Amino acid sequence: MSEPYVAELDFYVRYAETDTMGVVHHSSYVIYMEEARSHYARTRGYSYAEFEESGYYLVVSDLTVRYHAPARYGDQLQVRCWIAEIKSRRLAFAYEIRHYEGGQLLVSGQTQHICITKAGELQRIPQRLRDWAT
Amino acid sequence: MSEPYVAELDFYVRYAETDTMGVVHHSSYVIYMEEARSHYARTRGYSYAEFEESGYYLVVSDLTVRYHAPARYGDQLQVRCWIAEIKSRRLAFAYEIRHYEGGQLLVSGQTQHICITKAGELQRIPQRLRDWAT
Amino acid sequence: MSEPYVAELDFYVRYAETDTMGVVHHSSYVIYMEEARSHYARTRGYSYAEFEESGYYLVVSDLTVRYHAPARYGDQLQVRCWIAEIKSRRLAFAYEIRHYEGGQLLVSGQTQHICITKAGELQRIPQRLRDWAT
Amino acid sequence: MSEPYVAELDFYVRYAETDTMGVVHHSSYVIYMEEARSHYARTRGYSYAEFEESGYYLVVSDLTVRYHAPARYGDQLQVRCWIAEIKSRRLAFAYEIRHYEGGQLLVSGQTQHICITKAGELQRIPQRLRDWAT
After folding, report:
1. pLDDT at position D3
2. Using a CB-CB distance cutoff of 8 angstroms, which residues of chain B are in contact with residue D38?
3. Residues 6 or more apart from A24 whose CB is under 8 A from it?
4. Using CB atoms, which residue from C21, C61, C63 is nearest to B64?
């Protein structure tokens, strides 16, 4: 995967996503990262809603986030999201969140995922997702 | 229902529940009201989780909130919650949210609920909930 | 105000905005309404961030929401938002949230606002906002 | 710090904290961890609100979370929170979140913090916090 597909999602910071410090709350970025995954799947033609309807969940097993600089209400941000690794039973997404204008890096992160059935049984990563890596 | 049962839930404001204004975000009170309903059900011996397991949902059909004064991170609050009305197909909860110390009124509100099956069909309010009004 | 300016904001439902019922949590719509106000201000050329920088807050004093039908993760929604009333000391926004495709009405609501200084003193609604009604 | 002070916070999962999968959303645990820090400070006699009033912020610079097992609406959980490391310019909290009954481990995590002034300048960790490690 020398040059992975990168999905880019642009959005404005909502007021409710900020906190008393006057900046975006650190948990809000976790939701931005999740929405970037949704956007990734949509732009690759296989929405995560459709994936769930097929009987699977792609659950988060590990989360790491590094906070470089704050964002504020009304800022326009961009999340870049790509697949960092796919193995038979694990899938990792990587993220960079930047100011849309100027491109300052605000947050970088990674999520690890496993695939389970709705009954909770561990599965191999479905082929249709593994194809994303090629 | 001249003197309804009143459930009282005490809690601290979480940092994530505040916003750039330095106060509790107005949507956070909607979640406090919901948790007060959960607490109401628990203290009456019929948890809402148990109610859902019986095949029903009690969905919110209407919400009204009046904001009187702000709360801040770390404040200890108290929600008082009671049933304002039960009819065959509607149930209303009323709420008051106050500072735990001093008792200043911060928010008052009401939610209207209907009962549906998991398939989405409208139901009468189950007897076990209607008994709460007596 | 026979034909008020209407701002339209389209967006996708985020996974985190749903709940165990499999639908959008009722508090999430309160945040959609707020973001619609932000969008309203941006499209009228006076962002709310800029408004706050001028020393004022436009706080929510009353909220009413009616829930007509549920939305689910991944649905594309549209909020329509307009000024329902402006008086010297009060401002009301009205909202309709619909499925983007098909236009089914999901939620209707209204918020009442008052204007305060950062020190908490009640102010008249600034002229620049009152001009929005004309 | 062979035996650090451990703060224990018990609470019920709120409905709004769950998602379409029927479990607690992975971002909700980040907020539980934050509230555990608040509880830690309160039980050590120096609330974080008081700390902020003294002119400082303790911001999150790094977050790592491992998800072991899911929790559901209404579950009673316990967060255990302790200081994993204090250096002159860095402070790390560690967390374990378990089912209150039975003690099953659900989530483990760590947050790294730096101290800044309200003007955004990096500071040494104040002595009053460094005393927590002794």
Report:
1. 87
2. 12, 14-15, 74
3. A13, A17, A18, A70, A71, A72, A73, A75
4. C63
User: Can you give the three-state secondary structure of C33-86, one letter per residue?
Assistant: HHHHHHHHHHHCCCCHHHHHHCCEEEEEEEEEEEECCCCCCCCEEEEEEEEEEE
> How many residues in total does chain D contain?
134
Which H/E stretch holds residue B31? helix B26-43
Note whether B81 and B33 are within 8 A (CB).
Answer: yes
State residue A134's pLDDT score.
74
CB–CB of C67/B62 below 8 Å? yes
Q: Is D91 exposed, middle or buried (0-12, 13-18, 19+ CB in 10 A)?
A: buried
Instruction: Compute the nearest-CA separation of C42 from chain A (Å).
Output: 9
C42-58 mean pLDDT: 95
- Chain B segment 66-125 residues within 8 A of A by beta carbon are 72-73
Which pTM value belongs to this model? 0.97
Tell me which chain B residues have a C-beta less than 8 angstroms from the C-beta of A19: 15-16, 18-20
Tokens for B36, please give them. 């007060």
Low-confidence spans in chain B with pLDDT less than 70: 1-2
Instruction: Indicate the pairing of strand C56-67 with strand B56-67.
Output: antiparallel
Substitution target from A26, A53, A108, A117 for chain D, most D beta carbons within 10 A: A26
Q: Which residues of A touch C74 (CB under 8 A)?
A: 38, 47-49
**Closest approach of chain D CAs to the CA of A113, in angstroms?**
10
Give the chains touching C; criterion: ≥3 Cβ pairs < 8 Å. Answer: A, B, D
Average pLDDT, stretch C9-17?
A: 98
The partner residue sitting opposite A25, judged by closest CB among B16, B23, B72, is: B16
Query: What's the complex ipTM?
Result: 0.96
Across chain A, mean pLDDT equals 96
Residues 6+ apart with CB under 8 A from B119: none
pLDDT in tens, D10-40: 999 999 999 999 999 999 999 999 999 999 9
